Amino acid sequence: MELTRGGIDTRPEATLLATRAAEYLASGPADPVSLIGHVCNLPGAPRVVAEHMAEAIFAGRPEFRRDDQGRWILSAPEPTYIVPHKATIASSGRSAKNDILTDLSYVVVDLETTGTSHRFGDRITEVAAVVVHKGEIVDVFERLVNPQRPIPAFITRLTNITWEMVKYAPLFEEIEPRLVEVLTGHVFAAHNAMFDWRFLCAEVLRASGRELDGRQICTVRLARILLPQLPRRSLDHVARYYGVEIKGRHRAGGDAVATAECLTRLLSDAADRGCVTWADLESMVGRRRRASRAKRRRSAMPRSADNDTSA
Question: According to CATH, what is the number of the domain 94-293?
Fold first, then answer.
C-alpha cells in the first residue's frame, strides 16, 4: 500500500544548537571555527575543539554535511526537523489540504498506561496501532510493554493488566522500531488523540531521540461535531451509536479496533455533510472551536444578578 502524503514521520529531536547552526548555514558554507563561534558563542575556539563540537552537534543529522573543503553546509535547504512541532489537527503542507479523506490511510492508536502523566513518570503498558485504508482494517500491531515501574492497583482494575503480564514483556525501546514502521506514512487517529499522541511522542523520543510529526484526527472531536445528540462522546457511547462491538474494553487492541471502525463511520457521516477533503475537515473543526470559544466567553460575561450586592 502506498504511503500517504502528510502522514506520520520521525525526525531528530529539535535542539537549540541545531537550530542556530541551520540558521547560520542558510547563508552559505562555514568552517568549523566560525560555525562553533556563532552557535556556541565561543569565538576563536581551537580548530580541533571546534571540529569535535561540530561533529557532536551534527551526529545522526543527515541535513548537515561537509563539502570538499571541509566546511559545513546544509544538505537540504530547509531542514524540517528544526521547526518546533505543535501537535494539532492540521495539514503538514499546502499540497495536503486537497487530500481526499477517503483516499488517506489512518493509523488508529490506543495506549494503556500506568497513569495519566508521562511528565511525572507514567509509562506505557500496552500499545495497539490499527491501520485503516479505504475503510478497511489492513494491519494490526499490538504489544504488551514492560513499563519498568509498578502498575497501580486502580489501573489493574480498569485494564486487567497486571505486573505478572508485563514483567517479561519487551521494553518500549525494543518495540519502538517496528511500531514507528507501522505508524509511518499514515494520519494519526485516536479517541482523545492528544493524550495518546503526547504519550507516544514522549516514549519515542525517550527510546530513539527522534520526534513524531504528522497530521492527527481525534474521534472525540469529530463525535462532538457530527453526533451532538449523544449525551456523551466516550468510546462506549460512540461505538454503541454505530453498532460497533468493543471486544476487550480498556485493552489497547480492543479499543483501537473499535475506534478504527467508529472513525470510518464518522468520516462517512462527515462526507454526507460535504466534508470530503482535509481542508474541509480543518474548516469544520475550526468552526467548532470558534463556536466553543464564543460560548465560553458568553457564559463568562457577568449577568445582572452577578452584580447584585443586596442580601
Answer: 3.30.420.10
